[in-house]
């Protein structure tokens, strides 16, 4: 099943829906509790899709593909390398990545995102799948120059708009072998299968749950394959994950700041 959040007009509050043959039906209830699927009769092109979840927390895994670790000349980690992005980084389909004036090198990282559906703590790998609601596509947008300056990545990974999610949550995906593709203006930048992950999805979920409680609506970004590269104003960056769908996002300079030396 495909679960999404949308609104019909900019004035409407976000609403849960489900997708059937290009039509949206309302969900009576929430995907994290009991719900009923109502008849699908709203055309997908008439709806404004929002990020398919408004996460409580966003947990990310660094260097989870050997080829990406190699392009950054770092060793493959022995245990999952965790970091967080704040919920204020999230944008949905139709949103724009705002390039901050502090960085001269903002890069795309296309990733499979896990959406947590139930509370979990101290889970085994076998139990991990029971707390997963589904999967969506994500971009772990990164100010690479700031990441190199800082030991901790909060600043480089934490700017508003740095976590596009969407277009919807697919509940029936096999995360062990899904193809991730990233293009910028139609040019191929990243392509790999999730089978190349060093720590597979269920192992990541179990590991995270040994550190912190997982709660409904939390999102885990599972790392990016090789091929990360720069974004510039006017670009269109697209992530496609086989079995999920396509997430396309525009790239702009942050319109909320004067791009002066004082901002850096
Ligand atoms: Zn990443």
Shape: globular
Q: How much helix, percentage-wise, in residues?
A: 10-25%
Named CATH architecture of the largest domain: Alpha-Beta Complex
Q: CATH-wise, what's the superfamily of the largest domain?
A: Fumarylacetoacetase-like, C-terminal domain
> Can you tell me the residue ranges where pLDDT is under 50 for at least 5 consecutive residues?
none
Beta percentage is 35-45%
- Radius of gyration from the alpha-carbon trace, in angstroms: 18 Å
Number of strands: 20
First CA to last CA: what distance? 45 Å
Largest sheet properties: 12 strands, mixed
Structure classification: mainly beta
- Topology as a string of helices (H) and strands (E): EEEEEEHEEEEEHEEHHEEEHEEEE
* Tally of individual domains: 2
Mean of residue pLDDT values: 95
List each distinct ligand once.
Answer: zinc ion
Total helical segments: 5
CATH topology of the largest domain: Fumarylacetoacetate hydrolase, domain 2
Identify the CATH class of the largest domain. Answer: Alpha Beta
